[in-house]
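Handout, section B. The chain below has 127 residues.
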Amino acid sequence: QVQLVESGGGSVQAGGSLVLSCSISGHLYDMRHCMGWFRRALGREREAVATIGQNTGARYVDSVSGRFTISKHSTTKTLYLAMNNLKPEDTAVYYCAARSATDCPLQPGRGDSFAYWGQGTQVTVSS
């Protein structure tokens, strides 16, 4: 059984920073597998924000490239998303997700190919 638990969300003003964490439990889960962060804004579909895989490296959606950084710590089984220069349009519920495969899809979309999901953490950016 693989479980993901996010933390680190909150409310910040535009230009501020937050770091989201995702703790992954389940001794069978291989940290070399593809993991990612997704978000869902009110009234919009869930979208991929960033993914990281053993062979595919880190990828970002254009709107966050240069501002967000995805990373992972294999020993502690934790996935991170460092978010800088936050904008009001970054306001959403953020989810971490994991696949049972090493490579990340080139077009993650809504994350339909990701088998494991956290419960989500709210990020609110005010102008």
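Note. The chain has a mean pLDDT of 95. Compare this with the example in section A.
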